[in-house]
Write a structure and sequence with these properties.
Blueprint lengths: L1 H19 L9 H5 L6 E7 L4 H14 L3 E6 L3 H9 L5 E4 L5 H6 L6 E15 L8 E2 L1 H8 L9 H6 L11 E5 L4 H13 L18 E3 L1 H10 L4 E6 L1 H5 L3 E2 L1 E3 L5 E2 L3 H8 L3 E2 L5 E2 L13 E9 L9
Parallel strand pairs: 1-2, 1-3, 5-10, 6-7, 6-8
Antiparallel strand pairs: 3-14, 4-8, 4-9, 4-14, 10-11, 12-13
Helix pairs in contact: 1-3
Length: 312
Amino acid sequence: MAVTAIAAIAALSAACSSSSKTSTGNTTNTTSAAAGAKDSATLSGAGSTFVSTILQEWTKAYRSVAPGVTINYQPVGSGAGIQQLTSKTVDFAGSDVTLKPEEQQATGGPGSVAEVPWVAGAVAVEYNLPEMKNLKLSPATLAGIFAGKITKWNDAAIKADNQGASPPSTGISVVHRSDGSGTTQVFTEFLKATAPEVWTFGSGKDVPWPTGTGAKGSDGVTAGVKQSPGAIGYSELSFPKQASLGIASIKNKAGQFMAPTASAVTAALAGATVNPDLTLKLNYTPDDAAAYAMSTPTYLMFYKAGTDPAKS
């Protein structure tokens, strides 16, 4: 039942979203309502903060269909979520990146854990600089900021990316994740792939940040940016939107500065390679001029062989 419930909340959310376009009332899909309506269990999950906002909406929607099912999710970061899945203290995990070989071994070997692309979205570059309403950044400039090489908003590289604008001389404060984060891995893999001559600090859930202040979770990074004029950070798109922060457009391979819109994410992920296990190998330099390259799926992870009949 665990897999059914977790998958159903996403399907139900999509059904409700479609219904809401044609009706102002609360509607549910009758097929989804029938599936799992009589189930009773408590499921626990942990991991990606990237998916936490939409997962709250899904869980609320599924609760109205299957009131006997409780789904608890802790947005503690992809790294911590995988650790909890490995120790079997949760029923499922959310991660913005797939399991590494050593993590596969720790969970019982390759194939023991299902890794299902669950939702896709953008890693947004958020900033607190009211003077710049439509900030544009090339990968080299973005890498220079997070490498600590560009420290003022009126740096020549930022001016070059923003022709006709007059950035202030405000100092730049970098805010990054302090916890093991799939969002960090996507962000640093993008920098490594697109500006390797500038970003020389590797990629992963944790990296040796050369500058900046660490904060826990996407919400922590956004809060840090919000309270510090001149600050810049990165997080899942919904966080800076909710905080009314600026969101930068990032230059892609075709030379276009693209905002992290749904269509731009779709265009970027169309350039990914589907692996035999249905996970994705991301391409951070897609050819499509409409692509926002810093895009990623979040994976739902769970053991294929359940141990609790009530949750299988």
